[in-house]
Design a protein that fits this description.
With 621 residues, the protein is an all-beta fold. The protein has 6 domains: 19-108, Immunoglobulins (Immunoglobulin-like, Sandwich), CATH 2.60.40; 115-229, Sandwich (Immunoglobulin-like); 242-315, Sandwich (Immunoglobulin-like), CATH 2.60.40; 322-401, Sandwich (Immunoglobulin-like); 414-489, Immunoglobulins (Immunoglobulin-like); 500-621, Sandwich (Immunoglobulin-like). Helix content is 3%, strand content 46%.
């Protein structure tokens, strides 16, 4: 049967693919993932984690002799058995349980204990050495606790049903006795000599745990893999090992085998299917859909042959619903989520095997909704039902992205506008802003809450601070002060605005805040897109009748400026320039908007002296 989740007392949990990551506030294990100890000696391992953990736990049984303090996370005690143990450590705090982490504890045997080093086998009259390899083991036998293997040594041996078998263990370190667990029927261990012998009674592959012991204790456990073949001349299943059927539809499968079988066996048949042991026919009308594995074997006068596995796939009954919605549902942690399940053939209810925390399913409408709490991927089964029965399940993957960071404004902190002139300025922010917030706005301005467009007209000059922020699915971002600076109209600002020269081109319009290049271009009649500032003031020496000499600056400027002043300044040392009263002479009128002028120093040049002049251009208050 196909296993279901949360479907009643006879249900099993479905196998799912889960990769749900912890939220930022859940604890994350930071302690080492490998620790060592020795049998008979005190052992201590302290689990640690971020974000103030309050409880610790392990999913797998600790090595014998060790215990976990669930409050402090300390694993301690005196181990009694060697082996390599893989634990799954979990840590929790007030926000929930963080991601589990594997921790490997290696317990070395006590000093002086023996070690299995190999062995030799004898099947009938043939003899073959055992081979080394990797293996795993669990379980206990003869009252002795067996542990996971401490090293990679593993042994293999083979035999046949009803054929005498012998395999003798070898050990170093003064072994006094041998131990074994998981021997197949018909075989036994001589604890003194280490010989495993007998007549195997059943075919198969068996994982046998073996170890050696002496007065110092048990040595490390090693896996002996025994492969027991079926008896000679026993039947072998020859029929196909895959079959399919449908819920409620009569089904029949005939098992066949070689060497004149007289009987068949089948295990784990889904009800109500039955086996006719004489003919090998499996028949009935399957009641539940799913994929089932059925071990088959046949017997004849020589015995029972080896097992083959039949895979039976049972599909939904005719007329049952089939899921038609998408196979992936995407969302973000902390954000509202909605996904509609759909199916053909008039579904009456919908079912799901598992859900991310924070989501729920409306079984009548098929609507999945809620707010997922953690990011990650979760693959589940969904199916629908109607009067004809339960439909075929489909896989649905929830792809939940991490919560978006709160938005941060990225559109600057200063906007400069002209008094009485309409303007528009768009707020922008990172991390997908959905809306914008603001404090009280000055008269004449408005801010669109969805687009973040600030627009309007200011009637008076001055600085107008506005507190702004942005929102997204994670909530509001940090607040920021946006200053709207309004200037009185001037010839310079008219010139700059007409050319689109705003804060985005060489700085704001006013010189003290970075618009020096724009202001120079205007004041000295330069091209507004020019590169090098050619045509700036040129020094000349003017000699008056009588021989008195003066230093002057000749330059081209825009005529009849409003809101812009030129100030001549002088210094004898290239520092400490002082304003001076200049003698201004118009040298030439170039056109209707520009003229060539001379600004002459008020103090004459002295013999052997130095004089430096500069013209300061500034906006009038």
């Amino acid at each position: 049967m196909r296993p279901y989740a949360l479907r009643g007392s006879d249900s099993d949990w479905i196998d799912t693919i889960v990769d749900i990551l912890p939220s930022a506030t859940q604890p994350v294990v930071t302690s080492p993932t490998l620790a060592y100890g020795t049998v008979g000696q005190h052992f201590s391992y302290a689990a640690t984690a971020t974000n103030s953990p309050t409880a610790f736990g392990v999913r797998i049984t600790l090595p014998a002799g060790l215990a976990l303090n669930t409050a402090s996370g300390v694993i301690s005690g005196t181990p009694t058995a060697p082996g390599t143990f893989t634990l799954v450590l979990e840590v929790a705090n007030a926000s929930g349980t963080g991601a589990p982490r594997e921790v490997v504890i290696v317990i070395q045997p006590a000093a002086g204990t023996p070690s299995i080093t190999g062995g030799g086998s004898l099947v009938g009259a043939a003899s073959a050495p055992a081979s080394a390899g990797d293996g795993s083991l669990t379980g206990a036998g003869e009252g002795v606790a067996f542990s996971p293997p401490l090293n990679n040594l593993a042994l293999t041996a083979s035999g046949q049903v009803s054929v005498p078998f012998s395999f003798t263990l070898a050990a170093s370190g003064g072994a006094l006795r041998f131990l074994a667990s998981g021997l197949p029927e018909g075989l036994a261990l001589n604890g003194t000599t280490g010989e495993i012998a007998g007549l195997p009674a059943e075919p198969g592959v068996f994982e046998v745990e073996v170890a050696a012991a002496n007065a110092a204790g048990n040595g490390a456990t090693v896996t002996l893999t025994l492969t027991i073949a079926a008896a000679a001349d026993t039947p072998v299943i020859t029929s196909a090992l895959a079959a399919s059927g449908q819920v409620g539809v009569p089904f029949s499968y005939t098992a066949m085998a070689s060497l004149a079988p007289v009987g068949f066996t089948a295990a784990d048949l889904p009800p109500p299917l039955t086996l006719d042991s004489a003919t090998g026919i499996i028949s009935g009308a399957p009641a539940e859909l799913g994929t089932f594995t059925i071990p088959l074997s046949a017997a004849n006068a020589s015995g029972t042959g080896g097992t083959a596995v039949l895979t039976l796939t049972v599909l939904a009954a005719p007329g049952t619903p089939a899921i038609t919605s998408a196979i992936t549902a995407s969302g973000s942690a902390g954000a509202s989520f909605s996904f509609q399940l759909t199916a053909r053939n008039s579904p009456t209810t919908f079912q799901i095997s598992d859900l991310p925390f924070g989501l729920s399913l409306d079984p009548v409408t098929g609507l999945l909704s809620g707010t997922p709490q953690s990011p990650g991927n979760l693959t589940v089964e969904v199916w629908a039902e109607n009067a004809a029965g339960e439909g075929q399940a489909a896989l649905l993957t929830f792809a939940i992205a991490p919560a978006a960071a709160s938005p941060a404004l990225a559109s600057g902190v200063l906007v400069e506008v002209a008094v009485g002139a309409p303007f528009a300025f768009a707020l922008t922010a990172s991390n997908a802003p959905a809306s914008f917030n603001h404090s009280a706005l000055p008269t004449g301005l408005s801010l669109h809450p969805l687009t973040g467009l600030l627009s309007g007209t200011l009637a008076a000059p001055g600085d107008y601070p506005i507190i702004v922020s942005a929102n997204n699915v994670s909530g509001p971002g940090p607040e920021q002060t946006l200053t709207v600076r309004a200037f009185a109209q001037s010839a310079y600002r008219d010139w700059a605005l007409a050319r689109g020269l705003t804060a985005g081109s060489d700085g704001p319009l006013n010189a003290p805040y970075g618009g020096v290049i724009n202001l120079h271009r205007f004041a000295f009649a330069l091209a507004p897109t020019g590169g090098a500032l050619a045509g700036l003031p040129v020094p000349v020496i003017v000699t008056e009748p009588g021989g008195t000499r003066y230093l002057a600056l000749d330059f081209t400027r825009t005529r009849d400026l409003v809101g812009v002043t030129f100030q001549l300044r002088s210094s004898n040392t290239l520092s400490g320039f002082q304003d001076v009263t200049a003698t201004i002479e118009i040298l030439e009128t170039l056109d209707a908007t520009t003229e060539r002028v001379r600004f002459r120093d008020s103090a004459p040049l002295l013999p052997g002296g130095k004089r430096f002049l500069q013209v300061e251009v500034e906006l009038a208050p």
